[in-house]
Write the structure tokens for this entry.
Amino acid sequence: MSQIRAFLAIDLDEDLKPKIYKLIKEFKQIDAKIKYVELENLHLTLKFFGEIDTEGLGLIEKAIANVLSEFEPFTVKIAGCGAFPNANRIKVIWVGIENDEIIRDLHDRLDKEFVRLGFDKDKRFSTHLTIGRMKSAKNKNQVKSTIEEHSEIDIGEMEVGEIRLKKSTLTPAGPIYEDITVFEL
């Protein structure tokens, strides 16, 4: 029985990547230990499954398709910059998502189905795009002030018309993501 590391995500629109790249370039001016997410890997995670048996993919795909049959394409606004867990203990630097009610509803309905399949219920869900992970506190105050400077940044709007079930292969150079199934809304 083979296993893969998998997650469900909404990919970032190609048109918005240049603005996020410009923001990442500002963070790169700071001499800080930050591991940035590759532009092609930017996504909003709806569910991280972890290691799953490939034999169970059909059940997961069926659950996703059932929930998505109740949704139409929708628009979200990518805006704001912040940190997890907070600005004083920065582990993750993110760009936010506004008017995320539909995404939250989508997540909650999907999560309910995944719990029925035996997955743990998500304890917290936050609509965001991770752009970097801080590896040490070096120059944390400069990073914090750059986050605050861009707390109101407007990246733009995007239409969400599909979600993707992805395979993640961890490598020393960073993760490699491959689409398993693309679900249209």
